[in-house]
């Protein structure tokens, strides 16, 4: 080797090793995926999805691309968030948008549109060194995993210990859905709707395993799976068998439209969980946390209802859709000042992030991200049993 070659080699910056590793939602974050709003569409009708925005040009039965100005504003906030994370030394990957306006099909069905790739949390679940592609339960989202395949392929090639898994792709025939569910459900009283939620008697049948990754809350050795409009008992059972070294729990809350757990039951750090008090937890779940010395804190009300804006199907409780940078630091939507004050009172450093414009594209700060690497190892935070858990 020449002197020039030796100098050149010595001056090269060290290449940071890629490692897939994340057991919970609070260990120090090192590597993350941040979604994109590009190409998102108001979905075409399908058995599990009902979009009805007549004031904004999309009455029931119509579909098409989100308005360009909304997409641009959402992408501006997503890009700014990605830069903020990078400035803190966190590596950021992004999905590759598809043509989400295209018609898609399998041998069993045709669907007039796809959806988008803003909320990667819905599609991908990281448990330890494994990244799992969820089944998804909307036909419009069946192919959404393709937007993340370039990132996953790169991780697979870079990390020899990465486990890349995909749950069984569902057929999503008409047998997977309750016929006319929304027409009937919307005529029921509150008590009747909550009874159906508790029994997981919703739009999905038990024909096949179905789940979104965002219905899984990770607490080390314990995984809590919310039964919801997109996750059925078969999906929970598949996850329970797939992670035999974990305790996998099926849970419900008093929420008439349950859709993903991360705006309801939010881990903040070991021993502390933030709870959306409008969606009561079962006594069994609360007891399981309390006997293991966890404090359950009710979140303050959302600061505003602004994200019930144009074309948004999200709840104001995106306020609690937080991203932990480490056990002491939380990213919070910038307008949620009361929540920020509550979290500061609990001992956290809060990083305000403007993110309101992203809500119509599928969620908040947690929805818009997927952990690839956090420091830490698998730990048991619930050594004491309680009730059915």
Automatic annotation (TrEMBL):
UniProt-annotated catalytic positions: 212, 260, 367
Keywords, in A-Z order: Transferase
Molecular function GO labels: glycine amidinotransferase activity
GO terms under biological process: creatine biosynthetic process
Entry keyword annotation includes Transferase: yes
Domain of life: Bacteria
Keyword Transferase in annotation: yes
InterPro entries hit by this protein: AmidinoTrfase (IPR033195)
Gene3D superfamilies given in the database record: L-arginine/glycine Amidinotransferase, Chain A
Family: Belongs to the amidinotransferase family.
Descriptive protein name: Glycine amidinotransferase
């Amino acid at each position: 080797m020449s002197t020039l070659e030796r100098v050149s080699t010595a001056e090269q910056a060290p290449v940071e090793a890629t490692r897939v590793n994340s057991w919970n939602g609070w260990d120090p974050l090192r590597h993350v995926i941040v979604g994109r709003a590009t190409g998102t569409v108001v979905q075409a009708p399908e058995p599990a999805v009902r979009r009805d925005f007549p004031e904004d040009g999309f009455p029931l039965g119509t579909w098409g691309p989100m308005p360009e100005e909304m997409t641009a504003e959402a992408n501006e906030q997503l890009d700014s968030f990605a830069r903020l994370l990078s400035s803190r030394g966190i590596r950021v990957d992004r999905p590759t948008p598809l043509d989400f306006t295209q018609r898609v099909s399998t041998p069993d069905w045709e669907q007039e549109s796809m959806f988008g790739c803003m909320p990667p949390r819905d599609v991908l679940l990281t448990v330890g060194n494994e990244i799992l592609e969820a089944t998804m339960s909307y036909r419009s989202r069946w192919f959404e995993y393709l937007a993340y395949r370039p990132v996953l392929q790169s991780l697979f090639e870079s990390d020899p210990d990465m486990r890349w898994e995909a749950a069984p792709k569902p057929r999503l025939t008409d047998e997977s859905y309750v016929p006319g569910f929304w027409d009937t459900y919307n005529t029921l009283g509150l008590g009747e709707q909550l009874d159906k939620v508790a029994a997981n008697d919703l739009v999905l049948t038990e024909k096949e395993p179905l789940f979104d990754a965002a219905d899984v809350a990770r607490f080390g050795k314990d995984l809590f799976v919310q039964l919801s409009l997109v996750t059925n008992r078969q999906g929970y059972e598949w996850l329970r068998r797939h992670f035999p070294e974990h305790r996998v729990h099926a849970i419900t809350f008093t929420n008439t439209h349950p859709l993903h757990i991360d705006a309801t039951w939010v881990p903040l750090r070991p021993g502390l969980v933030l709870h959306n008090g409008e969606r009561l937890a079962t006594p069994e779940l609360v007891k399981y946390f309390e006997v293991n010395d966890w404090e359950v804190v009710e979140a303050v009300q959302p600061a505003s209802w602004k994200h019930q804006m144009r074309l948004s199907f999200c709840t104001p409780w995106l306020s609690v859709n937080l991203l932990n940078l480490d056990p002491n630091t939380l990213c919070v939507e910038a307008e949620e000042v009361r929540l920020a004050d509550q979290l500061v009172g609990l001992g956290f450093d809060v990083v305000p992030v403007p993110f309101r414009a992203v809500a119509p594209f599928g969620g908040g700060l947690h929805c818009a991200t997927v952990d690839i690497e956090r420091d830490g190892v698998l730990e048991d935070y619930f050594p004491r049993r309680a009730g059915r858990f």
